[in-house]
Design brief:
single chain, 362 residues, alpha/beta, Serine Threonine Protein Phosphatase 5, Tetratricopeptide repeat, DNA Cyclobutane Dipyrimidine Photolyase, subunit A, domain 3, 3 domains, 5-stranded parallel sheet, 15 helices, 5 strands, binds flavin-adenine dinucleotide
Length: 362
């Protein structure tokens, strides 16, 4: 379902029908691009997608899609500016919170809400979940289930091929009301409209004015202690020719067309300290490793940056791309590709989008 061959990824961009997007994107079987695993992992950029769309569409006819791409850039601007603060309640304390642990039924795909349960199984099988379903799931955990958003967000991130902590944590917080002034609620009528099945008599089959519910629905009462296990590959001996520069790739930068003219050592750096904090499933790790097959001569290094630095000495000449999680890297930092030059933080997307939109000529 998610190819890792570079040409197939470019074909996906070239074949995407953006004209249908605004009308159908909220439907669970609507026309969405499924490009996020590649954008998130830095294989392609939002800028590249926009440039390709420019060859086929007038920007104003696909503004909704461009705005969604802009959400990605905006969350990255937030992460750059706020750093670790995005991992705690950002603007308001989430309330009420009855437990930090996720609801067991959600993790087991057994909530009794058919579309949700199917989507969770699909997440485990494919590493993808539709945006609207992510909102439903986050609302079930945080608002109906009264769970703090963090642990449930970590669970979802673990399974997503497109796992991006900024888009993830800040979207969870948006749903839970800690990064927005109201919580996101949905009901069965809404799910039946946008979903794939027609269901009634579930605990969400109620009018909106019944929300918030007085009690946590029985289906969401039990919780689970998460164990997000990760097994990093064995590192074979890394051979660094210290007479050459070293180009460092990470799980967020797998751009196989970057610095290809440079005669260099190429290393995918998997830092154990990073994965302790942001574990990913075996399926996600395999996806990342498969994407590196497009990078000629790349070696996989399971070590911290400072160990890699020692291997690169005495002629330390290291290149990496800017990312909030690479602040401890040293060497030559290259900027990432963005759609606009609006990299200053705004508290709200609308404030930021106003400036970005102008620059995009919309
Ligand atoms: C609770 C929750 C958790 C999320 N976690 C992640 C995550 O870990 N990683 C991730 O990449 N996205 C996350 N998102 C955002 C969004 O759901 C996905 O980017 C989108 O569903 C990806 O599918 P697509 O490529 O088919 O999107 P499309 O609808 O085709 O959108 C095109 C592109 O725009 C960007 N985009 C679209 N919507 C958003 C958004 N809301 N926020 C940021 N970028 C967006 C993505 O790069 C996407 O590829 C989350 C959203 C929610 C509500």
């Amino acid at each position: 379902m998610f190819a890792t061959n570079y040409q197939d990824i470019l074909d996906r961009v070239a074949n995407f029908d953006a004209s249908e997007y605004a009308r159908s994107r909220n439907f669970l079987d609507g026309t969405v691009s499924r490009l996020s695993p590649y954008i998130s992992r830095g294989v392609i950029s939002t800028k590249y997608v926009l440039e390709q769309l420019d060859t086929r569409y007038d920007r104003s006819s696909i503004e909704k899609f461009i705005q969604e791409l802009a959400w990605r850039d905006y969350w990255q601007v937030c992460w750059n500016e706020l750093g670790d603060a995005i991992s705690s309640d950002l603007r308001y304390p989430q309330t009420p919170v009855s437990s930090l642990k996720p609801p067991l039924s959600l993790i087991e795909g057994n909530t009794g809400i058919n579309d949700v349960d199917h989507a969770i199984v699909e997440l485990y099988n494919t590493g993808y979940m539709h945006n609207h379903m992510r909102m439903y799931v986050a609302s079930l955990a945080t608002n109906f289930g009264q769970r703090h958003w963090l642990q449930s967000a970590r669970w979802m991130y673990y399974h997503l091929l497109d796992g991006d902590w900024a888009s993830n944590a800040l979207s969870w917080q948006w749903v839970a009301g800690s990064n927005s002034h109201k919580k996101y609620w949905f009901n069965q009528e809404n799910l039946n409209k946008y979903g794939l099945s027609e269901q009634h008599k579930t605990f969400i089959d109620q009018p909106y004015n019944n929300f918030p519910l007085n009690d946590v629905p029985s289906a969401l009462v039990d919780d689970i202690s998460l164990r997000l296990h990760i097994e990093l590959p064995e590192t074979t001996d890394i051979i660094i020719d210290s007479s050459k520069p070293t180009v460092v790739y990470t799980t967020y930068n797998l751009d196989s067309r970057w610095l290809t003219d440079l005669d260099a050592n190429r290393v995918l750096l998997l830092e154990p300290s990073h994965f302790d904090r942001y574990p990913v499933s075996p399926h996600v790790l395999k996806f990342i490793l498969d994407l590196t097959h497009e990078i000629e001569g790349i070696q996989v290094a399971v070590m911290e940056f400072k160990q890699l630095k020692e291997l690169c000495c005495p002629n330390f000449d290291v290149h990496y791309k800017q990312h909030p999680l690479s602040k401890h890297f040293e060497g030559i930092e290259h900027s990432r590709d963005w759609m606009t030059s609006v990299h200053t933080y705004s508290k709200s997307f609308s404030g930021w989008w106003k400036k970005a939109r102008r620059e995009l000529g919309l």
